[in-house]
Amino acid sequence: MSNAAAEFSVDIRMINRRIADLAGVVLTTDGDVLRSTSSVVRSLWAFVGAMFALIVCKAGLIAYIGMTGYSAAVAMLADGTLVERLGAFMMQAGGFSSILAQLIRIIVG
Predict the structure, then answer these.
(1) pTM of the full predicted structure?
(2) Which residues contact 77 (CB under 8 A, 6 or more apart)?
């Protein structure tokens, strides 16, 4: 029975290690948390990724419809409801998105 108990203990340790990997923590052999990935750091990376995706989408739109058409669409949004005005604020063409749009136009042709 001690062999079965030892195998069970190994299996439980492996399950706990997999759960810890999914949770972003590192466990010691006793099962204590050695360190954990900060949720603030993960949230910050998610925010940075979302902002980068927004800039790339803006650059793609600017490259596709041109700066004058894009500015007209943003101006139309700025005259709308509160949600549309917030969207217009977020979708304003910035320096980086304009430069990225020019690079996209050069690459795509």
Answers:
(1) 0.60
(2) 84, 85, 87, 88, 91
Query: Nearest Cα to 68, choosing from 109, 103, 90, 98?
Result: 98
Residues 62/70, Cβ–Cβ less than 8 Å: yes
Characterize 46-55 residue by residue with b for buried, 16 or more Cβ atoms within 10 angstroms of its Cβ, and e for exposed: eeeeeeeeee
Residue 30 structure tokens: 């006793």
How far is the C-alpha of 102 from the C-alpha of 74, rounded, in Å?
A: 19
pLDDT of the chain, 109 residues: tens digit per residue? 578 778 888 888 888 777 766 666 665 666 565 565 666 777 888 999 999 999 999 999 999 999 999 999 999 999 999 999 999 999 999 889 999 999 999 999 7
Asked if 38 and 82 count as a contact pair (C-beta separation under 8 A), the reply is: no
Report d(CA 5, CA 54) in Å as an integer. Answer: 54
